[in-house]
Amino acid sequence: MVIYYFVHNISVKEVIEILKQKGEEAFNNAINYLNSEYEKYCYKVKKYFTKLPWKSKVITFDQLYNEVKIKLGDKLDEEINTITKELKTKGSDAREICLKIVERVKELSEDKDPVIILFFSPPYCPHNTLKSSDSEEDMLFKSLEVVLKDFAALENMKDFKILRFFQSLSDSSYLKVDDDYESIDMLINNFPNWEKIYNIPIKEIKNLNIPAVNFGTYGKDAHKWTERVYKPYTFETLPRLIVYAIKRFLGNSLEE
């Protein structure tokens, strides 16, 4: 099963903890349902009912990898790299490659019990926010408020609404990472063959920590076949706004 999440302000560590909890709940629900159905079957065929032997088990890919690594050593990494290379040559989707790696490592573990394995796969888009608690980021936000208010007055239009968090996908997300280094390590360790499949320089991005401002279009249904934009704003007002904002910020003065 593949799940996509947009997260606002929780870390990778917290995401894993939440998914583990939900995974255990789902696993227990499945076991309870199977036991219930099996009990009904036993009653109908006049067979003595005993509960099924399975127990809830939810682990991360990092846990699975380390268990198998102890047994196989470097051979495990060779196996993972071989799978990655072969599937890349075939043009397989990166998500499928990650899944095949997890399946193979599970086979090598020789553990036949049912288990939920949590792992990450592409695309990963870092979440970042202009925080009021950060003096430089808050100064940027307040400066932007002044620029937009002045532009709105020049254009004789309503004031803009500014959000500290962009609720969609954006290339500017790769300029800054809010997660701490512990969460970043958890992301990489639970992302099968990160270096070969999706090696974005996330720690370098974290070190640079460049605040981003996204001037968006006005429209509906982003990334859907019904996606559309309001043309007068998107192709007329927005370009003027971007040029105006750039000139104001490069001019190093908000009073001009």
From TrEMBL:
Q: What is this protein called?
A: Peptidase M20
